[in-house]
Amino acid sequence: MKQFIHAAVLLAAAIAARGANADEIRTCDFAVKARCASGDARVTLADGVVKRIEVNVFWCGLPGHPGYTCTIDSSRGDADSTWSEDAGATVIGNTSPWTTALPDRVKVTVGQDIALDLKEAQSLGRCGAGAELPQTIVIPAQKGACRVRLPPP
User: Fold this and answer.
1) Of 39, 84, 83, 85, whose CA–CA distance to 60 is shortest?
2) Are 34 and 140 in contact (CB under 8 A)?
3) Range 12-45 burial, b when 16+ CB lie within 10 A, else e
4) Residue spans per domain, the chain
5) Which of 2, 6, 58, 146 is the most exposed place for a label (fewest CB within 10 A)?
6) How does pLDDT run across 17-52, given as a tens digit for each residue?
7) How far is the first Cα of the chain from the last one, in angstroms, to the nearest whole number?
8) Which residues fall within 8 angstroms of residue 87, CB to CB, at 6 or more apart?
9) Region of residue 119 (phi > 0: left; psi between -120 and 50: alpha; otherwise: beta)
């Protein structure tokens, strides 16, 4: 019985230690009915440091036609991106941009809210015809809808 108690204590300690270092996932959804756009954003943090970002945007198609999507899915250390820090923000660069003469990067700022600045992210190569990435997405600290700024129509 004593061995069972020791094993249970060790298991509980291992679970507690693992929980203390667990990744934090912040996510939100959005829908902009006037522009027929919707999507979601997800940021994974490890001890407050950005580890992964995922952005999915769906734009409605013409009546009777499928819509168009835009995606960003990048993890720290993957071969498709470069990660750096700049003035308190994580900058994620695409290593194979559609237009090599232009920047293709996302700036992620972590505070109470998480802000994704997509103004320098190229939509070409990530989006179907007629679709674009938002200019900014803010994931609120409290559960709720993303705050999104779309490019001008």
Assistant:
1) 39
2) no
3) eeeeeeeeeeeeeebebebebeeeebbbbbbbbb
4) 23-149
5) 2
6) 455 578 999 999 999 999 999 999 999 999 999 999
7) 70
8) none
9) alpha
- Residue 67 near residue 90 (C-beta atoms within 8 A): no
Q: Among 48, 28, 22, which residue's Cα sits nearest to residue 109?
A: 48
pTM of the entire structure?
0.84
Locate 78 and state its tokens: 């993957």
- What sections of 89-153 are H helices per DSSP? none
pLDDT tens-place values along the chain, 153 residues long: 455 455 444 444 444 445 557 899 999 999 999 999 999 999 999 999 999 999 999 999 888 888 999 999 999 999 999 999 999 999 999 999 999 999 999 999 999 999 999 999 999 999 988 789 999 999 999 888 999 999 988
